[in-house]
Amino acid sequence: MKEWQKLLWIIGIFLGAYFIPWDSVLIRQSGLEAFMMLQDYAREHVLTCLVPAFFIAGAISVFVSQSAVLKYFGAKANKILSYSVASVSGSVLAVCSCTVLPLFAGIYSRGAGIGPATAFLYSGPAINVLAIILTAKVLGWQLGLARAIGAILFAIVTGLLMAFIFRKDDANRQTGELFLPEDETARPLWKDTLYMLTMVLILVFASFARPGADDGALWKMIFSAKWYLVIFLLAVLGIMLKKWFVKEELKGWVESTWGFAKQILPLLLGGVLVAGFLLGRPGHPALIPEQYIQMLVGGNSLGANFFASIVGSLMYFATLTEVPILQGLIGAGMGKGPALALLLAGPALSLPSMLTIASVMGAKKTAVYCLIVVMLSTLAGMIYGGLV
Protein backbone atom coordinates (compact mmCIF):
# COMPACT_ATOMS: atom_id res chain seq x y z
CA MET A 1 0.00 0.00 0.00
CA LYS A 2 1.34 3.40 -1.00
CA GLU A 3 1.82 6.17 1.56
CA TRP A 4 -0.98 8.36 0.17
CA GLN A 5 -3.37 5.40 0.38
CA LYS A 6 -2.46 4.90 4.03
CA LEU A 7 -3.12 8.60 4.61
CA LEU A 8 -6.56 8.35 2.99
CA TRP A 9 -7.41 5.38 5.20
CA ILE A 10 -6.37 7.29 8.32
CA ILE A 11 -8.39 10.35 7.28
CA GLY A 12 -11.42 8.19 6.42
CA ILE A 13 -11.35 6.39 9.78
CA PHE A 14 -10.95 9.68 11.63
CA LEU A 15 -13.87 11.33 9.79
CA GLY A 16 -16.04 8.29 10.45
CA ALA A 17 -15.20 8.28 14.14
CA TYR A 18 -15.82 12.05 14.34
CA PHE A 19 -19.06 12.41 12.40
CA ILE A 20 -20.99 9.11 12.61
CA PRO A 21 -23.91 9.75 15.03
CA TRP A 22 -23.53 6.69 17.24
CA ASP A 23 -26.05 8.15 19.68
CA SER A 24 -28.75 7.31 17.12
CA VAL A 25 -30.51 4.00 17.85
CA LEU A 26 -30.70 3.20 14.14
CA ILE A 27 -26.97 3.79 13.60
CA ARG A 28 -26.07 1.69 16.64
CA GLN A 29 -28.35 -1.12 15.42
CA SER A 30 -26.82 -0.93 11.94
CA GLY A 31 -23.32 -1.05 13.39
CA LEU A 32 -24.24 -4.08 15.47
CA GLU A 33 -25.74 -5.76 12.40
CA ALA A 34 -22.51 -5.16 10.48
CA PHE A 35 -20.47 -7.06 13.07
CA MET A 36 -23.15 -9.72 13.55
CA MET A 37 -23.09 -10.41 9.80
CA LEU A 38 -19.29 -10.52 9.91
CA GLN A 39 -19.49 -13.02 12.78
CA ASP A 40 -21.99 -15.19 10.88
CA TYR A 41 -19.75 -15.06 7.82
CA ALA A 42 -16.65 -15.99 9.83
CA ARG A 43 -18.40 -18.91 11.51
CA GLU A 44 -20.18 -20.29 8.45
CA HIS A 45 -17.81 -19.64 5.57
CA VAL A 46 -14.21 -18.74 6.37
CA LEU A 47 -12.97 -22.11 7.65
CA THR A 48 -15.25 -24.44 5.69
CA CYS A 49 -15.45 -22.54 2.39
CA LEU A 50 -12.83 -19.85 1.93
CA VAL A 51 -9.78 -21.61 3.37
CA PRO A 52 -10.20 -24.70 1.11
CA ALA A 53 -10.93 -22.38 -1.82
CA PHE A 54 -7.72 -20.41 -1.20
CA PHE A 55 -5.68 -23.64 -1.19
CA ILE A 56 -7.36 -24.78 -4.42
CA ALA A 57 -6.63 -21.41 -6.03
CA GLY A 58 -3.01 -21.65 -4.89
CA ALA A 59 -2.76 -25.15 -6.35
CA ILE A 60 -4.21 -23.94 -9.67
CA SER A 61 -1.64 -21.15 -9.75
CA VAL A 62 1.32 -23.44 -9.01
CA PHE A 63 0.50 -26.93 -10.30
CA VAL A 64 -1.81 -26.28 -13.28
CA SER A 65 0.25 -25.33 -16.30
CA GLN A 66 -0.56 -22.12 -18.11
CA SER A 67 -0.77 -24.00 -21.38
CA ALA A 68 -3.47 -26.28 -19.92
CA VAL A 69 -5.55 -23.31 -18.75
CA LEU A 70 -5.18 -21.62 -22.12
CA LYS A 71 -6.19 -24.84 -23.87
CA TYR A 72 -9.63 -24.83 -22.25
CA PHE A 73 -10.20 -21.24 -21.08
CA GLY A 74 -7.90 -19.14 -23.28
CA ALA A 75 -9.20 -16.46 -25.64
CA LYS A 76 -8.45 -18.72 -28.63
CA ALA A 77 -9.86 -21.90 -27.15
CA ASN A 78 -12.85 -23.63 -28.73
CA LYS A 79 -15.84 -21.56 -27.58
CA ILE A 80 -18.24 -24.48 -27.16
CA LEU A 81 -15.69 -26.44 -25.15
CA SER A 82 -14.51 -23.53 -22.96
CA TYR A 83 -17.97 -22.24 -22.03
CA SER A 84 -19.29 -25.75 -21.45
CA VAL A 85 -16.37 -26.56 -19.12
CA ALA A 86 -16.81 -23.22 -17.30
CA SER A 87 -20.53 -23.82 -16.71
CA VAL A 88 -20.14 -27.45 -15.67
CA SER A 89 -17.27 -26.60 -13.31
CA GLY A 90 -19.39 -24.00 -11.57
CA SER A 91 -22.40 -26.27 -11.17
CA VAL A 92 -20.27 -29.07 -9.72
CA LEU A 93 -18.66 -26.81 -7.09
CA ALA A 94 -21.99 -25.27 -5.94
CA VAL A 95 -20.35 -22.46 -3.95
CA CYS A 96 -21.46 -18.98 -2.88
CA SER A 97 -20.43 -15.74 -4.59
CA CYS A 98 -17.52 -15.22 -2.18
CA THR A 99 -16.08 -18.74 -2.18
CA VAL A 100 -15.83 -18.79 -5.98
CA LEU A 101 -13.60 -15.68 -5.99
CA PRO A 102 -10.26 -17.36 -5.16
CA LEU A 103 -10.95 -20.01 -7.82
CA PHE A 104 -11.77 -17.31 -10.38
CA ALA A 105 -8.61 -15.40 -9.44
CA GLY A 106 -6.60 -18.61 -9.89
CA ILE A 107 -7.71 -19.40 -13.43
CA TYR A 108 -7.70 -15.73 -14.50
CA SER A 109 -4.16 -15.21 -13.24
CA ARG A 110 -3.05 -18.25 -15.25
CA GLY A 111 -4.22 -16.68 -18.51
CA ALA A 112 -7.87 -17.69 -18.87
CA GLY A 113 -9.84 -15.51 -21.28
CA ILE A 114 -12.18 -12.95 -19.74
CA GLY A 115 -15.19 -14.71 -21.30
CA PRO A 116 -14.75 -18.25 -19.92
CA ALA A 117 -13.41 -16.85 -16.62
CA THR A 118 -16.50 -14.68 -16.01
CA ALA A 119 -18.78 -17.51 -17.17
CA PHE A 120 -17.18 -19.63 -14.45
CA LEU A 121 -17.44 -16.73 -11.99
CA TYR A 122 -21.20 -16.48 -12.59
CA SER A 123 -21.95 -20.19 -12.83
CA GLY A 124 -20.33 -21.16 -9.51
CA PRO A 125 -22.92 -19.59 -7.22
CA ALA A 126 -25.78 -19.21 -9.73
CA ILE A 127 -25.95 -22.75 -11.19
CA ASN A 128 -26.18 -24.41 -7.80
CA VAL A 129 -28.11 -27.67 -8.16
CA LEU A 130 -29.09 -27.77 -4.48
CA ALA A 131 -30.34 -24.17 -4.57
CA ILE A 132 -32.35 -24.77 -7.74
CA ILE A 133 -34.00 -27.86 -6.23
CA LEU A 134 -34.79 -25.94 -3.03
CA THR A 135 -36.23 -23.06 -5.09
CA ALA A 136 -38.55 -25.43 -6.95
CA LYS A 137 -39.63 -27.12 -3.72
CA VAL A 138 -40.27 -23.96 -1.67
CA LEU A 139 -41.23 -21.33 -4.27
CA GLY A 140 -42.77 -23.52 -6.96
CA TRP A 141 -41.49 -25.55 -9.89
CA GLN A 142 -42.07 -22.68 -12.35
CA LEU A 143 -39.67 -20.38 -10.51
CA GLY A 144 -37.18 -23.23 -10.02
CA LEU A 145 -37.22 -24.07 -13.74
CA ALA A 146 -36.94 -20.40 -14.72
CA ARG A 147 -33.97 -20.01 -12.37
CA ALA A 148 -32.20 -23.05 -13.83
CA ILE A 149 -32.71 -22.00 -17.46
CA GLY A 150 -31.85 -18.35 -16.74
CA ALA A 151 -28.68 -19.18 -14.82
CA ILE A 152 -27.30 -21.48 -17.53
CA LEU A 153 -28.06 -18.98 -20.30
CA PHE A 154 -26.69 -16.08 -18.25
CA ALA A 155 -23.37 -17.79 -17.61
CA ILE A 156 -22.82 -18.25 -21.34
CA VAL A 157 -24.24 -14.89 -22.46
CA THR A 158 -22.33 -12.97 -19.77
CA GLY A 159 -19.08 -14.65 -20.78
CA LEU A 160 -19.65 -14.02 -24.48
CA LEU A 161 -20.49 -10.35 -23.90
CA MET A 162 -17.43 -9.82 -21.69
CA ALA A 163 -15.23 -11.54 -24.28
CA PHE A 164 -16.63 -9.31 -27.05
CA ILE A 165 -16.42 -6.03 -25.11
CA PHE A 166 -12.86 -6.65 -23.88
CA ARG A 167 -11.56 -8.58 -26.89
CA LYS A 168 -8.61 -6.18 -27.35
CA ASP A 169 -7.58 -6.46 -23.70
CA ASP A 170 -7.86 -10.23 -23.92
CA ALA A 171 -5.67 -10.26 -27.01
CA ASN A 172 -3.01 -8.26 -25.17
CA ARG A 173 -3.13 -10.62 -22.17
CA GLN A 174 -2.78 -13.61 -24.48
CA THR A 175 0.18 -12.23 -26.44
CA GLY A 176 2.73 -14.96 -26.82
CA GLU A 177 0.24 -17.71 -26.03
CA LEU A 178 1.26 -19.80 -29.05
CA PHE A 179 4.89 -19.78 -27.95
CA LEU A 180 4.33 -21.14 -24.44
CA PRO A 181 6.36 -24.29 -23.96
CA GLU A 182 4.66 -27.39 -22.68
CA ASP A 183 5.40 -27.93 -19.02
CA GLU A 184 7.56 -30.94 -18.44
CA THR A 185 6.98 -32.74 -15.18
CA ALA A 186 7.84 -36.17 -13.91
CA ARG A 187 4.43 -36.41 -12.27
CA PRO A 188 1.72 -37.86 -14.52
CA LEU A 189 -1.48 -35.94 -15.21
CA TRP A 190 -3.68 -38.38 -13.28
CA LYS A 191 -1.83 -37.56 -10.05
CA ASP A 192 -2.43 -33.82 -10.42
CA THR A 193 -6.05 -34.50 -11.35
CA LEU A 194 -6.63 -36.74 -8.33
CA TYR A 195 -4.94 -34.22 -6.06
CA MET A 196 -7.15 -31.36 -7.31
CA LEU A 197 -10.27 -33.53 -7.11
CA THR A 198 -9.51 -34.42 -3.49
CA MET A 199 -9.29 -30.73 -2.54
CA VAL A 200 -12.52 -29.94 -4.39
CA LEU A 201 -14.29 -32.76 -2.52
CA ILE A 202 -12.96 -31.38 0.78
CA LEU A 203 -14.49 -27.99 -0.15
CA VAL A 204 -17.81 -29.56 -1.19
CA PHE A 205 -18.25 -31.72 1.93
CA ALA A 206 -16.91 -29.14 4.42
CA SER A 207 -19.41 -26.54 3.17
CA PHE A 208 -22.31 -29.01 2.76
CA ALA A 209 -25.39 -27.22 4.12
CA ARG A 210 -27.76 -28.71 6.69
CA PRO A 211 -30.69 -30.31 4.80
CA GLY A 212 -34.25 -29.31 5.53
CA ALA A 213 -36.83 -31.48 7.24
CA ASP A 214 -38.38 -32.46 3.91
CA ASP A 215 -35.12 -33.27 2.13
CA GLY A 216 -34.31 -36.82 1.09
CA ALA A 217 -32.48 -39.39 3.18
CA LEU A 218 -29.39 -39.19 0.96
CA TRP A 219 -28.74 -35.50 1.75
CA LYS A 220 -29.26 -36.13 5.47
CA MET A 221 -26.89 -39.09 5.40
CA ILE A 222 -24.19 -37.04 3.62
CA PHE A 223 -24.59 -34.20 6.13
CA SER A 224 -24.34 -36.52 9.12
CA ALA A 225 -21.16 -38.10 7.72
CA LYS A 226 -19.57 -34.98 6.19
CA TRP A 227 -16.85 -34.45 8.82
CA TYR A 228 -15.83 -38.12 8.66
CA LEU A 229 -15.54 -37.72 4.89
CA VAL A 230 -13.52 -34.51 5.29
CA ILE A 231 -11.11 -36.15 7.77
CA PHE A 232 -10.65 -39.13 5.44
CA LEU A 233 -10.01 -36.86 2.45
CA LEU A 234 -7.53 -34.76 4.46
CA ALA A 235 -5.64 -37.96 5.32
CA VAL A 236 -5.60 -38.95 1.63
CA LEU A 237 -4.41 -35.45 0.70
CA GLY A 238 -1.61 -35.67 3.28
CA ILE A 239 -0.40 -38.96 1.79
CA MET A 240 -0.45 -37.44 -1.71
CA LEU A 241 1.54 -34.41 -0.59
CA LYS A 242 4.16 -36.57 1.09
CA LYS A 243 4.53 -39.10 -1.72
CA TRP A 244 4.09 -37.04 -4.88
CA PHE A 245 5.38 -33.52 -4.22
CA VAL A 246 8.78 -32.09 -3.39
CA LYS A 247 9.48 -29.45 -0.76
CA GLU A 248 9.93 -26.60 -3.27
CA GLU A 249 6.52 -27.30 -4.84
CA LEU A 250 4.77 -27.31 -1.47
CA LYS A 251 6.50 -24.06 -0.50
CA GLY A 252 5.31 -22.43 -3.74
CA TRP A 253 1.78 -23.72 -3.11
CA VAL A 254 1.65 -22.20 0.39
CA GLU A 255 3.09 -18.88 -0.83
CA SER A 256 0.57 -18.68 -3.66
CA THR A 257 -2.30 -19.52 -1.30
CA TRP A 258 -1.20 -16.80 1.11
CA GLY A 259 -0.97 -14.35 -1.78
CA PHE A 260 -4.59 -14.96 -2.75
CA ALA A 261 -5.70 -14.72 0.90
CA LYS A 262 -3.95 -11.34 1.35
CA GLN A 263 -5.50 -10.00 -1.85
CA ILE A 264 -9.07 -11.20 -1.33
CA LEU A 265 -9.85 -11.64 2.37
CA PRO A 266 -9.52 -8.00 3.60
CA LEU A 267 -11.79 -6.66 0.84
CA LEU A 268 -14.25 -9.49 1.38
CA LEU A 269 -14.58 -8.92 5.12
CA GLY A 270 -14.78 -5.15 4.62
CA GLY A 271 -17.56 -5.62 2.10
CA VAL A 272 -19.47 -7.87 4.52
CA LEU A 273 -19.29 -5.11 7.16
CA VAL A 274 -20.65 -2.50 4.72
CA ALA A 275 -23.44 -4.81 3.51
CA GLY A 276 -24.41 -5.61 7.10
CA PHE A 277 -24.46 -1.92 8.04
CA LEU A 278 -26.70 -0.97 5.12
CA LEU A 279 -29.00 -4.00 4.77
CA GLY A 280 -28.52 -6.14 7.88
CA ARG A 281 -29.03 -9.86 8.17
CA PRO A 282 -32.27 -11.48 6.93
CA GLY A 283 -35.01 -10.56 9.36
CA HIS A 284 -32.85 -7.98 11.17
CA PRO A 285 -33.36 -4.36 10.04
CA ALA A 286 -30.40 -2.05 9.53
CA LEU A 287 -29.93 1.36 7.92
CA ILE A 288 -32.22 0.52 4.96
CA PRO A 289 -35.48 -0.96 6.36
CA GLU A 290 -36.76 -4.18 4.77
CA GLN A 291 -40.28 -2.75 4.30
CA TYR A 292 -38.90 -0.14 1.92
CA ILE A 293 -37.46 -2.89 -0.24
CA GLN A 294 -40.72 -4.84 -0.14
CA MET A 295 -42.66 -1.72 -1.18
CA LEU A 296 -40.47 -1.20 -4.22
CA VAL A 297 -40.57 -4.73 -5.66
CA GLY A 298 -44.31 -5.36 -5.89
CA GLY A 299 -45.84 -5.98 -9.31
CA ASN A 300 -43.83 -6.54 -12.48
CA SER A 301 -42.84 -3.08 -13.62
CA LEU A 302 -39.46 -2.29 -15.12
CA GLY A 303 -38.60 -0.32 -12.00
CA ALA A 304 -39.52 -3.20 -9.67
CA ASN A 305 -37.42 -5.70 -11.62
CA PHE A 306 -34.49 -3.32 -11.91
CA PHE A 307 -34.63 -2.47 -8.22
CA ALA A 308 -34.78 -6.18 -7.29
CA SER A 309 -31.70 -6.81 -9.45
CA ILE A 310 -29.82 -3.92 -7.83
CA VAL A 311 -30.74 -5.03 -4.30
CA GLY A 312 -29.82 -8.63 -5.12
CA SER A 313 -26.46 -7.59 -6.53
CA LEU A 314 -25.60 -5.63 -3.38
CA MET A 315 -26.85 -8.04 -0.72
CA TYR A 316 -24.75 -10.94 0.46
CA PHE A 317 -26.50 -14.33 0.30
CA ALA A 318 -24.92 -17.32 1.96
CA THR A 319 -25.52 -20.53 0.00
CA LEU A 320 -29.26 -21.43 -0.06
CA THR A 321 -30.31 -18.51 2.18
CA GLU A 322 -31.81 -16.58 -0.73
CA VAL A 323 -34.75 -19.02 -0.89
CA PRO A 324 -36.23 -18.43 2.60
CA ILE A 325 -35.57 -14.69 2.21
CA LEU A 326 -37.55 -14.62 -1.01
CA GLN A 327 -40.27 -16.74 0.52
CA GLY A 328 -40.82 -13.98 3.07
CA LEU A 329 -40.64 -11.21 0.47
CA ILE A 330 -43.13 -12.96 -1.84
CA GLY A 331 -45.44 -13.43 1.14
CA ALA A 332 -45.18 -9.68 1.76
CA GLY A 333 -46.27 -8.89 -1.81
CA MET A 334 -43.15 -9.20 -3.97
CA GLY A 335 -43.94 -9.93 -7.63
CA LYS A 336 -42.81 -13.15 -9.32
CA GLY A 337 -40.76 -11.26 -11.92
CA PRO A 338 -38.71 -9.29 -9.38
CA ALA A 339 -38.30 -12.52 -7.38
CA LEU A 340 -36.60 -14.19 -10.36
CA ALA A 341 -34.52 -11.06 -11.01
CA LEU A 342 -33.24 -11.17 -7.43
CA LEU A 343 -32.59 -14.93 -7.66
CA LEU A 344 -30.46 -14.47 -10.78
CA ALA A 345 -28.51 -11.42 -9.61
CA GLY A 346 -28.24 -12.13 -5.88
CA PRO A 347 -26.24 -15.37 -5.60
CA ALA A 348 -23.82 -14.31 -8.35
CA LEU A 349 -23.03 -10.84 -6.97
CA SER A 350 -22.65 -9.07 -3.66
CA LEU A 351 -20.97 -5.91 -2.47
CA PRO A 352 -18.05 -7.89 -0.98
CA SER A 353 -17.56 -9.85 -4.20
CA MET A 354 -17.64 -6.69 -6.34
CA LEU A 355 -14.79 -5.17 -4.35
CA THR A 356 -12.77 -8.35 -4.64
CA ILE A 357 -13.41 -8.90 -8.37
CA ALA A 358 -12.22 -5.33 -8.99
CA SER A 359 -8.90 -6.17 -7.35
CA VAL A 360 -8.50 -9.15 -9.70
CA MET A 361 -9.55 -7.81 -13.11
CA GLY A 362 -9.87 -4.05 -12.57
CA ALA A 363 -12.71 -1.64 -11.84
CA LYS A 364 -13.77 -1.15 -15.47
CA LYS A 365 -14.25 -4.84 -16.24
CA THR A 366 -15.94 -5.38 -12.89
CA ALA A 367 -18.40 -2.54 -13.55
CA VAL A 368 -19.28 -3.96 -16.97
CA TYR A 369 -19.68 -7.48 -15.53
CA CYS A 370 -22.02 -6.22 -12.80
CA LEU A 371 -24.00 -4.14 -15.30
CA ILE A 372 -24.47 -7.15 -17.58
CA VAL A 373 -25.71 -9.33 -14.71
CA VAL A 374 -28.12 -6.63 -13.49
CA MET A 375 -29.52 -5.89 -16.96
CA LEU A 376 -29.95 -9.57 -17.87
CA SER A 377 -31.63 -10.23 -14.51
CA THR A 378 -34.00 -7.31 -15.05
CA LEU A 379 -34.88 -8.54 -18.55
CA ALA A 380 -35.45 -12.11 -17.34
CA GLY A 381 -37.68 -10.84 -14.52
CA MET A 382 -39.76 -8.78 -16.94
CA ILE A 383 -40.25 -11.73 -19.31
CA TYR A 384 -41.04 -14.22 -16.54
CA GLY A 385 -43.38 -11.81 -14.75
CA GLY A 386 -45.28 -11.26 -17.98
CA LEU A 387 -45.71 -15.00 -18.58
CA VAL A 388 -46.89 -16.16 -15.14
Helix content: over 70%
Write down the Rg: 21 Å
Shape: globular
Relative strand content: under 5%
**Sequence stretches where pLDDT stays below 50 over 5 or more residues:** 176-182
**H/E element order:** HHHHHHHHHHHHHHHHHH
Largest sheet: none
Instruction: State the end-to-end distance.
Output: 52 Å
Total of DSSP H or I helical runs spanning 4+ residues: 18
Give the count of structural domains: 1
Textual characterization of the structure:
By secondary structure, this protein is an all-alpha fold. The chain has one domain (28-172, 245-280, 288-387). Helix content is 77%, strand content 0%. It is built from 18 helices and no strands. The protein has helices at residues 3-19, 25-63, 66-73, 79-93, 100-109, 114-126, 129-139, 141-165, 167-173, 189-206, 217-244, 247-279, 290-296, 302-314, 322-331, 336-345, 351-361, 363-387. α12 (247-279) crosses α17 (351-361) and α14 (302-314) runs parallel beside α16. The protein is globular, with a radius of gyration of 21 Å.
What is this entry, summarized?
By secondary structure, the chain is an all-alpha fold. It is 77% helix and 0% strand.
Features:
mainly alpha; 77% helix; 18 helices; 388 residues
Question: How is this fold's topology laid out?
Answer:
Elements: H1 3-19, H2 25-63, H3 66-73, H4 79-93, H5 100-109, H6 114-126, H7 129-139, H8 141-165, H9 167-173, H10 189-206, H11 217-244, H12 247-279, H13 290-296, H14 302-314, H15 322-331, H16 336-345, H17 351-361, H18 363-387
